[in-house]
Amino acid sequence: MAHFNPPKIQENPNGWGPCSIPEQFKDMPYQPFSKDVRLGKVSDWTGATYQDKRYLGKYYSAYGGGQQYAYYHDEDESSFHLVDTAKIPKPLYQRGRRMFQQSKQRKERERKQAATQAQLRSMSKTMKNRERDRQRLLKKWQKQFGKQQMENRHKAAPAKSRDSSVQVEKEWDVVEEMDFPRLTKLSLPNIDPPVDLVTCGAMEFYEKSYDRVTTKSEKRLKRVNRIFHKVTTTDDPIIRQLVKGKANVFATDAILATLMCCTRSVYSWDILVQRVGNKLFFDKRDTSEFNLLTVSETATEPPQDEAVSFNSPHNLALEATFINHNFSQQVLRQGEETYDFEKPNPFIQNEEASTVASVGYRYRKWKLGNDIELVARCEHDAVMHGPNGELQFINIKALNEWDSRSSGGVEWRSRLDNQRGAVLATELKNNSCKMAKWTVGALLAGSDQIKLGYVSRVHVKDSSKHVILGTQQFKPIEFASQMNLNMENAWGVLRCIIDTCLRLKEGKYLIMKDPNRPVIRIYDIPDNTFESDDEESGSDEDSEFDEDDENADN
Fold first, then answer.
1. Are the C-beta atoms of 60 and 48 separated by less than 8 Å?
2. Does 231 have pLDDT greater than 50?
């Protein structure tokens, strides 16, 4: 029969736990602990792992520090090093380098100071005072420049993604893509001088008193209500007549300048290309902002204000275009004699005769080789008498100062009279594309001079009032050399684009600069694209072009 043997129970009247040690555990060390003691890890033999004093006694027993399990061999530990902490001596050629450099710099400073003192001793009292003032002013400028650089770095905002000049539709196909690094390597030398086909328009004479304007005798920029015709290629009646000739590429100087200087552009732009038979027509869209002048486009930090701000890129472009239109007419002798070309202005309506801006048009033809003949409408803004009384054709442009602190430039009112070269260098850096297009336009037209005006805001926060602070003139070819503009490369870029378009089938195409990358693309677009922009031309113009082509072929 099964039975149950109860275990032997030991009663401990003095505490809890067993009263005697069992035989199998008799020689094994035992660490007493109480109920509130936290037991440590198996490998945590000494508790010395925890360097933080808050955890120093974390696993200690209330009955002692755990000496029963302490495992530490003094001899072994003191003689053993896991990592070699001995200092590695430097090679001989590296010893004392810092001290030598400091000594060298100190000697250089002492040498310069001694040279300065010797120079001061050899100067007169007046010269000494001037030199001290110059040194003091130089240190002040260096301090201000360093502070300004620090502020600009703190204010630098992350670059925003720019919008394209026209929305690319899904059905548009990319037929060609050209990146700027490849375009900058092109060259087309030995272009023959152009031939003048037609000249028309009337120009007023430049008022030379504006050459004496300075920051101390500034003149207020006036609002001149005159009409500026910016007619695209296919709407030009003179070009319609010239289509009957042997030329096969037609454009305006503004379109050619944009294509030839495309490698300097940052903002997006677009140009329409129509191939009719073996002829190419480069046009601008009527609703595009092609004729607006960019501001600080190529600056290190281009303007990125919101659209509502008067310092946004679009509003600055409107302001710059307004300034150029008014400045180019204000500096002329209005109401006096004019220089007239052979034919009158072809765009003047009867009621506009007295309010049209001074302009002269040259329709010129270039031979680019490979049976490519280019015809373009070029513009002069005015005429003037040269040093020997000769007649000179000039183009008049204006640079505008909007905020020197935001544009990274120098303040014109304090530097323009004494350091005009520094002001011009800053503008060449910040507006490289715009000024290159001005220069190319003057070279295409055959202008003798480019007149540059320096126009600034009366107040930084007011974009409606401006003053003229000075003027400057350059020969176009010398100005191109100064801004590192290579005309052989410009002609090479244009010839590459023309050759690419002539290889395409008949139809309508769009050349567009990518808004965020240095790339231009050619899109194949439907023939009815942008027809709403060309309502004035319509189908009548197309039929007229067809008739002209038939006559040319016959």
1. no
2. yes
CB 285 within 8 A of CB 531: no
Asked if residue 357 lies in contact with residue 343, where contact means CB atoms within 8 angstroms, the answer is no
Classify burial at 226, counting beta carbons within 10 Å of its beta carbon; exposed 0-12, middle 13-18, buried 19 or more: middle
* SS3 state of residue 250: strand
Please give the model's pTM, rounded to 2 decimal places: 0.69
Which one-letter amino acid corresponds to residue 266?
A: V
- Residue 498 in contact with residue 481, Cβ under 8 Å? no
Cα 467 from chain centroid (whole Å):
26
How far apart, in whole angstroms, are the C-alpha atoms of residue 363 and residue 379?
9
- Alpha helices by DSSP H, 212-339: 237-242, 253-260, 313-330
What is the 3-class SS of 404-437, one letter each residue? HHHHCCCCHHHHCCCCHHHHHHHHHHHCHHHHHH
User: What would the two tokens of residue 204 be?
Assistant: 């007023």
pLDDT at 535 over 60: no
Q: Which of 181, 406, 204, 241 is nearest to 313 (CA)?
A: 406
At 236, give phi and psi (nearest 5°): -80, 120
User: For the chain, how long is the longest CA-to-CA vector?
Assistant: 146
pLDDT at 217: 92
What lies within 8 Å, CB to CB, of 155 at 6+ separation is: none
H/E stretch holding 24: none
Contact 547, 192 (CB under 8 A): no
Q: How far apart are CA 103 and CA 85, in angstroms?
A: 32
Quote the CA–CA distance of 550 and 554 in Å, as a whole number: 6
For residue 283, what are its two tokens? 């046009």
Q: Which two tokens stand for residue 495?
A: 């010839």
CA separation for the pair 417, 212 (Å, rounded):
11
Give dist(CA 228, CA 293) in Å, integer: 14
Cα separations (Å) of 299 from 134, 264, 265, 432? 30, 11, 11, 9
Structural element, H or E, at residue 155 = helix 125-155
- pLDDT band at residue 286 using 50, 70 and 90 as cut-offs: confident
Question: 220 pairs with which residues across the strands?
Answer: 467
Q: What are the distances in angstroms from CA 104 to CA 101, 110, 116, 325, 462?
A: 5, 10, 18, 59, 53
- The closest of 298, 250, 255 to 276, measured between CA atoms, is 250
